[in-house]
Amino acid sequence: MKKYSGKLALQQRVLPSYRVPFFDLLAGQCEGGMHLFAGQPRPIEMIASGKTKVAQLREANNIHLFGGMFYLCRQQGLVNWLEETNPDALIVEANPRYLSTPAAVQWMHARGRTVIGWGLGSPTVSGFRKQCRLSFIGQFDAMLSYSQRGAEEYAALGFPHEKIFVAHNSISPAPTFNVQRSTLNAQPTLLFVGRLQARKRVDSLLRACAELKSNPRLMIVGDGPERSILESLAKDIYPSAEFIGAKHGAELKPYFEQADLFVLPGTGGLAVQEAMSYGLPVIVAKGDGTQDDLVRAGNGWQITPEDYGALVSTMKTALSDIARLREMGRESFRIVSEEINTQKMADAFVTALNSL
Description:
The protein has helices spanning 20-27, 78-85, 101-110, 127-137, 148-157, 202-211, 227-237, 253-258, 272-277, 290-294, 308-319, 322-338, 342-355, and strands spanning 8-14, 34-39, 56-59, 61-65, 72-76, 89-93, 114-119, 142-145, 164-166, 189-193, 217-221, 242-245, 261-264, 282-285, 300-303. The chain is α/β, with parallel strands linked by helices and 356 residues long. It folds into two domains: 8-171 and 341-355, Rossmann fold, CATH 3.40.50.2000; 189-338, Rossmann fold (3-Layer(aba) Sandwich). The strands form three sheets. It has a seven-stranded parallel β-sheet, with helices on both faces. The chain starts with 7 loop residues before the first strand and ends with a helix.
């Protein structure tokens, strides 16, 4: 386990509960301790906030301005918090919509201290917009990217390659168990885990199941604003679909263990890595790049979002060879055991800190 000898400060707009274990793990690798600054989300975001046990949390006063593509956030008290905690290094979300970040960077640099940006990457732009984005990330001493694609996007903007570090986005530790499944299954079982909202495209999953001759068992774990609509749809086109409701933590274990294939037809979703830790192959819609590193030809399929035909054909391909599915599930397990987990992510953060 790598260590950082100094005191770390880390800024977040909000602190989702799923991120708490990672921050506590990272705090344990900072010999000088770790301070965390985060505020509350907007009610419409429906983000469950968490509390850390190891990292010392200070709640920010988030002032949310405008909405949609014009959204901005000002975090009151950020510089005062830095003055009180007096860190050796600061990691901030690399998001230009957060208006308090430049002042925090200036405070750190005025004292000769390190600031690292942490972000998803930056889509390809040119001309004046490219210069603006490079100017924004150029204020950081190094960049931490959620994915390899994100790292390449930062490099394409002009940020130095040698100062970009990939910390694969992870919410789960390396698994300490290994689910053993039989090679034959008379009725394959499909699993979806996530919030039931329109962008998850669970309606497409129901329609796709109705087209499959294998008549798979479909377990839908989660709750949300679309549940009643989806249940009504299921009664008409796939009445055998099982709506389990919201489950968390250890409650999810029996559903992952019963499944043969995990399917996430829409955008977003944090359960992919957890499914892989149970030795499941996965079908996911392409997203922001964080899934590129997780989902490969050896353990699953990435499909184009909103492409219903691709979803149906990929599900048919996946279920046509159960022995192949089992092999792909073993590769999923290997990836999260050896390459992408919260410990590997924390080690990448410490590597970036120590490099400076």
